[in-house]
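User: Teach me something about this protein's shape.
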Amino acid sequence: MTKTELCLLSAAQMANGLVAGDFTSVELTQAHLDRIADLNPALNAYLYVDDAGALATAREVDEARAAGQDLPRLAGVPVAVKDIACTVGMPTTAGSKMLEGWMPPYDATIVAKLKSAKMPILGKTNMDEFAMGSSTEHSAFGPTRNPWDLDRIPGGSGGGSSAAVGAYLAPLAIGSDTGGSIRQPAAVTGTVGTKPTYGGVSRYGVIALASSLDQIGPCARSVTDTALLHEVLGGHDEMDSTSLDAPVPAVVEASSTRDLTGMKIGVVKEISGEGFQPGVLARFEEARAKLVELGAEIVEVSCPHFTSAMAAYYLVLPSEASSNLARYDAMRYGLRVGPDGVESPSAEQVMAASRAAGFGDEVKRRIILGTYALSSGYYDAYYGQAQKVRTLIACDFEAAFEQVDVLISPTTPTTAFKLGEKLDDPLAMYLGDLATIPANLAGVPGMSIPVGVAEDNLPVGLQFLAPATQDQRLYAVGAALEAALTEQWGGPMLDQAAHLCLAQPFDKQEAGA
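Assistant: First, the predicted structure itself:
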């Protein structure tokens, strides 16, 4: 196999090929590292690439396999990690100047699980600073670009992970989802992303944005691959007080589903229509019809408080963010600089100068909003009211799931917008998370899969939502629809696109070798 052919395999195919001896983990990992070297300068999907570490793990896997040792299913399959998780031997910056160059002294639980699974970690992916953003334009280290169109955003805050997977710079990646930061990037890059049930994957060692909303999850190019990574990441962690003490849902088994007979699927009336791009709605209606062909019954449901989700979210998130980011004060953590022209600055002056230099505009905006919402005299009027709305949204979900097994909606109102298009209009940027935010407020699991392209030839995502702890339902419905669409298209949508664009430079490199 050529290096390009190795990179174009699914994670499941890579795992099977390694067991069969068709190629080694070193060959597979090196193919991805070479592709990263070739394409990352244009994409800026990775902030740090760990060539030596990834190849060392790959060699260990090859030696263990040659010795006949039993290995985990994904042993030797490379993976990328969003730069929000602590990693020994690799810097963790959360996309911020505040943490530039910081080397954590310990691994996040999810990173430790990847290492236990013997998966070579290719590196750390780009992200909006402290996960605040919907476009990865708020990274202190430059924006990531969408593999479908380098002039467009790859979503956010996890645009680095989605772009890396979409451009075949990694078969699997880890993201974090606070208001849609796994699902929205998946939608606009034609990939698959899952936000597990809150507490289903440990957050220990993951830099916090909003602790009651944050959730780690898998990114991949197919539902099955996403399930395989989800299985590695999931499970109880006593180091995380919010971790669910429950078995990992049977997501891999569910991803083999092809028949949806008897499944009731709810269409959320409040998440479609006005403000949604015509091409997005067209692909949504086609996917809805395909689900009926697969045996599902479609039921329209109303979740009236979803219309207030964004307002509640942008009070809860900034409030928790202002509290979580208070530690970056130049005394305990983070960048330290002195104020200009002051010979013996006070602690307060150093803090002010350091936070001014270390945080970007979007982070400052949300800290100010959150601090105001939590201030004396305003707490009950703002943060307290937002939490009441949050409860009503959770009640909407409960009522809906009494009628149906899963809910569906477009993942995003539009396809990927152009870089810089919404930077000066934060509200317009926030509206991109309109459909994804309710799941985080209620803690229920969600998934986005690609369902075609819109009139602008850019990917469209369909979102599935399931009751808490019922993540396997997402994989069952997602896998069935994915299989039907793949058959209709004559192959995975992303594979066809890759051959037309980002595969070409790599092929040329091989041809000249």
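Now, about its shape. The mean pLDDT is 95. The two ends are 15 Å apart (CA to CA). If you'd like, I can walk through any region in more detail.
User: That's plenty for now, thanks!
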